[in-house]
Amino acid sequence: MQVFIPFLNDLEKQSRDTGYIRMVGRLRRGFTVAQAQGEAETIASQLRREAKEYAEQSLHLSVLSLQEDDVRPVQPALVSLFAAVVLVLLVTCANVANLLLSRSGGRRHETALRSAMGAERRRIVRQFLTENILLGCLGGTAALGIGWAALKWILSLQPEGIYLLVAAKLDGWVLAFTLMLSILTGIMFGLAPALSVARGDLVEILKESGKATTTGKPWLRQSLIVSEVSLSCILLVGTGLMIRTFTSLLRVDPGFHAENVLTFQLSFPWSRYGTVESVTNFLKDLRTNLAAMPGAESVGGVSHLPLDEGLGNWYSYYWAEGAPIQQQNTVMADHRSTLPGYFRAIGATLLTGREFEDADDAVHTHVAIVDDTVAEQTWPGQDAIGKKLSVEDSPAGAFQFIREPVVVVGVVKHIQAHSLTSKGRGQIYLPVSLAPRPAYSLVVRTTAPMQTFAAYVQQAVKKLDKEMPVSNLRPQMDYVEKARAQTRFVTVLAGALAALALFLACIGIYGVTSYSVAQRKREIAIRIAVGANLGDVGRMILRQSGPPVIVGVVTGLATALALTPLLSGRLYGVRPSDPLTYAAISLVLGAVGVFACYIPARSATKVDPMIVLRSE
After folding, report:
1. Does any domain span residue 459?
2. CA gap 340, 350 in Å, rounded
3. What is the pLDDT of residues 164-190, one digit of tens each?
4. Is there a domain that residue 474 lies in?
């Protein structure tokens, strides 16, 4: 449910350097984002002249496309998957073309008879294309059923970041697209086999007395095998890099330990919790009650839970006390309102100093805890404890921001607040009494089962306020898994597509090699009849079928090396040119190619010379 309310405070009374509002506008017809950016920069220059604060922080305004900004987090993942689908389609088409080339060999005599009886070449080609288009449409129709099941499976894997995926369905547009693709692939990849048969020498074909012979130029079939293997290699390398990325995500240190941590969120209605004291006292009493529950090890709370993007982020400029004016309003950090015990409960690492205490309130010295990123940026090579930092807090109430100096009493290791793969801004933590917020996430580290302690949470909250709702009651690991979800989604789908491409390449290699063996049965029979060793026959087939596979692997690796930098935005903990991935894919494809060639080679050694030569 979406509820829209006006701002509860007077924006005109706020400081001019408070910048958390994003304006939304609709462009006039015929105008571009670039033109709007030019106008916005003109407005920004006027504001810099009118207000000292804007001039000091060199205010600029950026105009962005709302649609592009909305899809920016998921666009790379979807484009990568679309590219993988195109590669699988190309592998399939190469496979179909090879199979049609092989199939057309048995129809050369039929085609020659039709031509001898007066059939025009274009009618023969048209007949072959009609058959190919029909096969393509039948395949597309069968694929719709598989596609429906695949769509259900994909939706079951949907990460929370790709919201519009639920809108995907098999509608008329999908049917039309599938039909057009089936017709186009039938024409494009059925044209070469059709022309190959139609252009045959009529006299020579009729002399063959209907025997199935090799059609087309051998280099064409070999080229298709090279294409299949190289395209599969590109897809396998990309999938291998995504698998390495996901395994790196499983090992990444987010700056906290989410195991055995239960979290839940409380939202304080302003009608009953309109003062800093009311919010502070409730959280203090709740923390005390939860700490007394069986199995509770430590309890804390924070305004913005790591990896929880449900609330708008809170960030602002900071600088060391006494910094010159040109160094102010230059670096931002995420700000967090924090309860005592939060760092112990979340499993963060306190590098130096202390955590917050109940005595750290607005009456006493105003204090803050910073992460090592802020400490190093502000006081490189120095001890941050005891130094003063200029920050924005709101001791008078939520969102009533003022700028004042605070004393650093602790430094913690940086926490991955927004993503497991990017460090993000530094972080500044303030006590609840200095920066109250309307919503807090409580964090409990417990040895009790999650379901058991969840009941304790409900009891403790209802004991203090029967009308206070408890929301998002879940383990902290859920947020970690959510942060991994999109990478897992892309990896699983890319893996499925890569496995399909590998399977198709295996079929293609097997089909061409098997067809070649069938066409050379007489030659193989003669070789065996005059004393050729069965092992020599098998090795001969492998030697002749292996080079296209080797060339395909080398070509695919070289192409992947040029293309994988495009995936760098999706990778973490692995380079696009990772040698381990390339070596593993080479071995996999080589093994598959040898296996696909081995079966026909083995069948070639079982040829009975007497039976084959008698039939000839």
Report:
1. no
2. 13
3. 777 778 888 888 888 888 788 777 776
4. no
pTM of the model: 0.77
Distances in Å between the alpha carbon of 194 and those of 167, 179, 504, 514? Answer: 41, 21, 22, 21
Residue with tokens 């709007």, as numbered in its chain? 36
d(CA 120, CA 175): 35
Owner of token pair 């992947």: 560
Q: Does residue 237 sit in the same domain as residue 286?
A: no
Same domain, 64 and 88: no
CA distance 450 to 456: 10
Burial of 466 (0-12, 13-18, 19+ CB in 10 A): exposed
- Are residues 601 and 494 part of one domain? yes
Q: Is 109 exposed, middle or buried (0-12, 13-18, 19+ CB in 10 A)?
A: middle
Residue 461 lies in a domain: no
CB atoms within 10 A of CB 150: 13
143: its two tokens: 């694929």
Q: Judge if 280 and 206 occupy the same domain.
A: no
User: Does residue 456 belong to any structural domain of this protein?
Assistant: no
Q: Which amino acid is at 45?
A: S
Buried/exposed 569-582: b ≥16 CB within 10 Å, e otherwise: ebbbebebebeebb
Both 278 and 387 in one domain: the answer is yes
Domain end, chosen from 53, 70, 87, is at 70
pLDDT at 328 over 80: yes
Q: How many helices (H) and strands (E) does the chain have?
A: 18, 12
Q: Are residues 414 and 428 located together in one domain of the fold? A: yes
Q: What is the dihedral of CA 34, 39, 40, 44, to 10 degrees?
A: 140
Amino acid at 42: T
Question: Which H/E stretch holds residue 249?
Answer: helix 218-251
Can you spell out the DSSP letters for 314-373?
Answer: -EEE-EETT--GGGTTS-EEEEEEE-TTHHHHHT--EEEE----TT-SSSS--EEEEEHH
Structure tokens at 300: 């804390």
564, 238 Cβ separation under 8 angstroms: yes
Query: Is residue 313 located within the same domain as residue 292?
Result: yes
- Which tens digits make up the pLDDT trace of 256-293? 999 999 999 999 988 888 889 999 999 999 999 999 99
| Maximum separation of any 2 CA atoms in the chain, in Å | 108
Of 32, 51, 70, the position where a domain reaches its end is 70
CA dihedral 177, 182, 185, 188 (to 10 degrees): -100
Q: Are residues 423 and 493 in the same domain?
A: no
- Range of 294's domain? 261-446
